[in-house]
Amino acid sequence: MTDCQGDGQGARTPMELYERLNEQGDKVRTLKTAKAEKADIDAAVQLLLKLKTDYKQMTGQDYKAGCPPSESTVVSDNGPAADGTNEEDTVDPWNVSTTNAKGVDYDKLIVRFGSSKIEKELVDRIEKVSEQKPHRFLRRGIFFSHRDMHQVLDAYEKSKSFYLYTGRGPSSEAMHVGHLIPFIFTKWLQDVFDIPLVIQLTDDEKYLWKDLTLEECHRFAVENARDIIACGFDVNKTFIFSDLDYMGASPEFYRNVVKIQKHVTFNQVKGIFGFTDSDCIGKISFPAIQAAPSFSNSFPQIFGGRKDVQCLIPCAIDQDPYFRMTRDVAPRIGYPKPALLHSTFFPALQGAQTKMSASDVNSSIFLTDTPKQIKNKVNKHAFSGGKDTVEEHRKYGGNPDVDVAFMYLTFFLEDDEQLEKIRQDYTSGALLTGELKKILIETLQPMIAQHQERRKQVTDELVRQFMTPRPLNFNL
Ligand code: TRP
What we know:
Number of strands: 11
Radius of gyration: 24 Å
Distance between the termini: 31 Å
CATH architecture of the largest domain: 3-Layer(aba) Sandwich
Bound molecules: tryptophan
CATH class of the largest domain: Alpha Beta
Number of helices: 21
CATH topology of the largest domain: Rossmann fold
């Protein structure tokens, strides 16, 4: 993308050009307000127009102040903060909603965000390179989108390894099953590729966004770490950190935060995240803190001074804005761009129009729920795609595409054939809603009981080990 000649003034990426445009627009306004010489104003306007043409050429989009370019150069919509005009789905780090009972239109999201679909070919490749059957989340399109995964595999095949980075915002003690999705998948990736993992607990973020004290957020971080550890991560290959602790303890981490802060403007984060002038400055600078773990030299104890170890981030698609920003600054501060694997959302019990939320007790199955609570919640609240009466259901069949119990089974039931049979039987009407829910309840109850059992085994000492900066065990 270096073909932006002339007064594009060396802008290499759409984002750089976009920034130039913002600056130039400001300049024109300043000149006009100051009643500057006509010739000066004309020159500034000419340059502005030239930049707009360059921008259109580079991105295929018209420049709009407040709407930064998305990574893909062909789409006209510009990511989460800019949407809402003619899109019905809202997807950003703070809100997920759609009017469609089947859930968010993920194919549209791929186009809007400019990421790539995880095609069968990529799943096959992961299988070949890892020599393992692909995880059910890959087989079933739950991880559905990526950035640069082919590049990661190309390098891995040439014996160039990578590390994993994921995270969690500890907004309460109560984690629900939806929160486990990225961790279950990350654990699988760690096992099959045998690579190090860093997990960021953004207690600082939750302090900035919620009405909580610093102490509460930090305590939630440590409590959440227990649930994360209970997913089975290898202590010799995993570093879990609270921002509140690690930022102060690691000069290298903070240096990267500052570098990122220097290379992202207020205009950019406004465009990407929708911040306004009345948001506190902590929020405005926070994205740099979520970006920093994408660069290996933020963890000298793990990677020595190396800054070139490729990072792969498994996360839910709503976190993508942070990493679009990260990928944009990476080359400008001399680091490789992180690659990404994006998951769909875990639907609320009431239906796929929104995701499961810890603040709505009835929308969620918590990791602390008893077998009886699980049974009651599923029976009472899980939105059903079945018909109103048994007679009708037998006659017309149910709709698994909007049925939350069926959706949950696609996340948690391992056996593909069994799942397909359930789909067919439900669709034909042979399987009733109550029977479908029973299968789900019997899948969730042991799964959650086992999680609780493993969590009990997580001692304070083990938490301390995971959260201590130290070398990890791996070969790069
Ligand atoms: N912001 C995320 C949240 O609120 C937490 C997070 C930090 C994260 N770093 C991450 C999530 C990396 C996924 C990947 O949950």
